[in-house]
């Protein structure tokens, strides 16, 4: 997909991988001259460090340090631009094929729509048995590309078209809801997008992986640009708001991976594609909006628009009675204050879902951190003019309050998980170039594959009145 893979059978050099503890054994296996070279250059197998081994014709082989994390994909992410340009490679001793392929493809990615890369990456001959890793890598790359697109290139119509292309690639049914149908069926989505000349819409994908498989609903916030509305953001706060559709991009990537791998699941995917703009037709502070669920919402702040979009999507999905609902959104700065840029906040009403997703995140180096649905803060959403406000009455616990708002639109007997993600790398690291990032996609995929056999069984979502840890 990104020019980092070589055709099978390409003449290639070996790249070995080693953790610090395995370095003595590797030195024993290598040619004595290569081993001496590694010793004298002080190679200690630090994560992402690459040693090029000389040969008669130049570079003969390479050794990658894995560091303490072992076969994490991130160490392999250093290889595409750390190995000589124009060279092709195959995996040698110590390499995990899936981690290596994933890390290589993710590390080779650069956003090139408007700027050519300074050089081409080295290429990897794809190892056998890593088909799932390749599918996941391609899904992540598509999600990154969507997030990186400037808002001038990606408005609501273009995001909906991206969802349509996913459906076409995977044999899913596609529906776009716009205009009067949107105003009637998704009034909160329509209100959020009403200030933009680029009309809002909801993109819906339906896929029947197996007739008797559990139905999973994936619901993505697709705010293609967020000015904050009439509660206008400052320049710094607005600068990266092209990424405010990151939740939608992540879940489109997840859906594509599940469909391409023929997972035993039925999917309902809904993307709320809008632009939150400033104009005479924009929603105003203290406007009262109706929602698909029938609840009325007072607009305490027009910059808390993502939860309004998700409110209608959650109500829509709940009508289909799925076994599990997952939403993802770049929702609150409070989550970033609490957890920083790398850890998405996870909220869920199901202990089984929390356990599966958290374990999956740990196992594949794509971690979440669970925050509580603490009902003691639910009263902060009360409004004297509507059923609830879209913001809390106190300037604290913003991520929790936003999750509690969303929970009002989830049927109490349906499993639900909410991800508050950053969807961006502030700086470049191996495998993670600066820019859009599909945080949580791999963990959601792995967690769902673990959960699917049990989703046909009844679960007991935590009722309101407690505090899920």
UniProtKB/TrEMBL annotation:
One of its GO terms (molecular function) is metalloaminopeptidase activity. InterPro entries: Leucine_aapep/pepB, Macro_dom-like, Peptidase_M17_C, Peptidase_M17_N_1. It comes from the Bacteria. Pfam families: Peptidase_M17 (PF00883), Peptidase_M17_N_1 (PF21337). One of its GO terms (cellular component) is cytoplasm. One of its GO terms (biological process) is proteolysis. Keywords: Aminopeptidase, Hydrolase, Manganese, Protease. Belongs to the peptidase M17 family. This is Leucyl aminopeptidase family protein. The lineage of its organism: Bacteria, Pseudomonadati, Pseudomonadota, Alphaproteobacteria, Acetobacterales.
């Amino acid at each position: 997909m990104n020019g980092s893979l070589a055709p099978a059978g390409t003449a290639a050099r070996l790249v070995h991988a080693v953790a610090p503890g395995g370095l003595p054994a590797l030195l024993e296996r290598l040619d004595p001259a290569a081993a001496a070279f590694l010793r004298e250059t002080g190679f200690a197998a630090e994560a992402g460090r690459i040693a090029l081994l000389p040969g008669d014709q130049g570079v003969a082989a390479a050794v990658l340090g894995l560091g303490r994390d072992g076969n994490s994909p991130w160490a392999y992410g250093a290889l595409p631009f750390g190995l000589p340009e124009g060279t092709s490679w195959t995996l040698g001793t110590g390499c995990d094929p899936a981690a290596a392929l994933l890390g290589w493809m993710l590390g080779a990615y650069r956003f090139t729509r408007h700027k050519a890369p300074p050089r081409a990456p080295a290429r990897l001959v794809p190892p056998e048995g890593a088909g799932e890793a390749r599918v996941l890598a391609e899904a992540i790359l598509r999600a990154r590309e969507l997030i990186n697109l400037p808002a001038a290139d990606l408005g609501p119509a273009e995001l909906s078209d991206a969802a349509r292309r996913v459906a076409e690639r995977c044999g899913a049914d596609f529906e776009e809801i716009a205009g009067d149908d949107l105003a009637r069926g998704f009034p909160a989505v329509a209100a959020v997008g009403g200030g933009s000349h680029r009309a809002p819409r909801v993109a819906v994908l339906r896929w029947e992986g197996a007739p008797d498989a559990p139905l999973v609903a994936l619901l993505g916030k697709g705010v293609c640009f967020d000015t904050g509305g009439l509660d206008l953001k400052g320049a710094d706060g607005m600068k990266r708001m092209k990424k405010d559709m990151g939740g939608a991009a992540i879940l489109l990537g997840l859906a594509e991976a599940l469909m391409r791998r023929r997972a035993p699941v039925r999917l309902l995917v809904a993307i709320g594609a809008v632009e939150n703009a400033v104009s005479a037709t924009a929603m105003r502070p203290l406007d009262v909006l109706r929602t698909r669920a029938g609840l009325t919402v007072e607009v305490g702040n027009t910059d808390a628009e993502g939860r309004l979009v998700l409110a209608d999507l959650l109500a829509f999905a709940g009508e289909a009675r799925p076994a599990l609902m997952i939403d993802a959104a770049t929702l609150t700065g409070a989550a970033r204050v609490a957890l920083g840029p790398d850890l998405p906040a996870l909220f869920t009403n199901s202990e089984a879902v929390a356990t599966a997703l958290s374990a999956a995140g740990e196992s594949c180096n794509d971690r979440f951190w669970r925050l509580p649905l603490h009902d003691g803060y639910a009263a902060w959403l009360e409004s004297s003019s509507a059923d609830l406000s879209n913001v809390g009455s106190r300037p604290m616990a913003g991520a929790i309050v936003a999750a509690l708002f969303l929970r009002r639109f989830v049927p109490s007997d349906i499993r639900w998980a909410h991800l508050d993600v950053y969807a961006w790398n502030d700086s470049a690291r191996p495998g993670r170039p600066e820019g859009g990032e599909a945080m949580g996609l791999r963990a959601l995929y792995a967690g769902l594959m673990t959960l699917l056999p049990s989703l046909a069984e009844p679960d007991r979502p935590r009722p309101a009145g407690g505090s899920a840890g």
